[in-house]
Design goal:
Layout: H1 2-18, E1 21-25, E2 37-38, H2 41-48, E3 53-67, E4 72-80, H3 86-89, E5 93-96, E6 109-113, H4 114-120, E7 127-132, E8 138-148, H5 153-156, E9 159-163, H6 164-171, E10 177-178, E11 180-185, H7 191-201, E12 206-210, H8 211-214, H9 216-254, H10 256-264, H11 269-305, H12 312-315, H13 326-343, H14 345-348, H15 356-360
Parallel strand pairs: 4-9, 6-8
Antiparallel strand pairs: 1-11, 1-12, 2-10, 3-4, 3-7, 3-11, 5-8, 7-8
């Protein structure tokens, strides 16, 4: 639940910031200046026809410089509009509020990261000059509406959020033009399939990219965590199986005389084996009951009270995250009962080799 919560928290930070899929125009340029695309109703409605699509957000990037009276910091300005999920992103805002977009004209508010704010010594409601890197250079005076922190260096070190209408004015774009479209899906598990389907649907001059390809290091790291979970549970199951075998062997040795008496009275090996198997299964069920009670109880307390803190500089979040995946918990319990229960057949096989005469005389 901890590693699942950690993986979900990291993915949510990436997806709320940039969507699951990114639609742009083909370009040979490697700069942040996109080749403009026309956001037509037919394009947007066509993408929305896919059931897996939740919403579409036009965006734009532009390189710039934030200048105070004492310092200058290079930044990447990301322009967004009213269709962006500012409520979902508010979890990353530590001070102030998300820029308020106007129906007419453009907003002069910007949202900066905590790292940029600390470097430039900026606070909420401070005014700062934003220079746009182009020929000739253009500048706008903007107001810091809020400060955010995701813990992810790709965002916090360089990106500030602003009104896409401001970038459109700077780039001399027409209405309905943007640098690209961010496609948000209802379920991130559909990301690979939707990339292929949208690639076949879109025009030849449009390119689609998924978040896992834009941030490969982060997603490779998360996949490595998944492998660690499998290794972790495999080791736990091996230890549990070895312990149960040892416990049952001890029980058999302690009850050797009883086994001999039962066999002398006519009990078959299968009957005696069932006795010890049932005792072993009872131990497994008791262990799972107390294990689930302590584990789920601890996770519930952490999810509600957030008692265990983390250093966001190292873990990208302030507290230990918890993900309650009850289907996975149920399957894990069933798998534990099945695997550990099957290993009990190893020690009980010794019962068939015990002879009544030797067992009764066993000391």
């Amino acid at each position: 639940m901890v590693l699942g919560g950690f993986e979900k928290a990291i993915k949510d930070k990436i997806f709320t910031f940039g969507g699951h899929l990114d639609v742009t125009k083909y370009s040979l340029s490697t700069s942040f200046e996109e080749t403009v695309i026309n956001v037509t109703d037919s394009l947007v409605d066509g993408i929305k026809e896919f059931e897996e699509v939740d919403r579409i957000v036009p965006y734009a990037y532009k390189a710039g410089l934030l200048k105070t009276t004492e310092d200058v910091q290079g930044v990447i300005v990301k322009g967004l509009g009213a269709s962006f999920d500012s409520i979902g992103f508010s979890e990353n805002i530590i001070d102030g509020h998300f820029p308020i977009f106007k129906d007419k004209g453009y907003s002069s508010e910007v949202l900066v990261s905590k790292k940029i704010a600390n470097y430039l010594q900026l606070n909420v409601n401070d005014e700062v000059v934003l220079f746009f890197v182009q020929n000739p250079p253009r500048a706008r005076k903007v107001v810091v509406s809020g400060i955010y922190e995701t813990g992810l260096e790709d965002f916090d070190e360089k990106i500030i959020l602003a009104d896409i209408k401001l970038l459109a004015r700077i780039n001399n774009w027409k209405d309905g033009q943007a640098g690209g479209l961010e496609v948000y899906l209802k379920n991130d598990s559909d990301m690979d399939r939707m990339e292929e389907e949208l690639f076949d649907y879109l025009d030849y001059d449009l390119y689609i990219d998924k978040a896992s390809d834009k941030y490969p290091q982060t997603f490779d790291w998360l996949r490595m965590l998944d492998r660690n979970v499998i290794i972790f549970f495999t080791l736990i199951l091996v230890v549990a199986c070895v312990n149960m075998i040892s416990i049952l062997l001890i029980l058999i040795m302690e009850r050797t005389q009883m086994i001999g008496v039962l066999k002398a009275l006519g009990a078959e090996n299968s009957f005696v084996r069932r006795i010890f198997l049932w005792n072993g299964i009872q131990l497994i069920l008791k262990g799972l009951f107390w294990g689930n009670l302590v584990g789920l109880g601890t996770c519930f307390i952490q999810a509600q009270l957030e008692l265990i803190p983390l250093d966001p500089a190292n873990y990208y979040m302030h507290t230990v995250p918890i993900l309650f995946n009850f289907s996975a918990i149920f399957m894990l319990n069933i798998m534990s009962i099945a695997v550990v229960g099957l290993t009990l057949l190893i020690p009980v096989a010794i019962i068939s080799r015990i002879t009544p005469v030797k067992a009764i005389r066993f000391d």
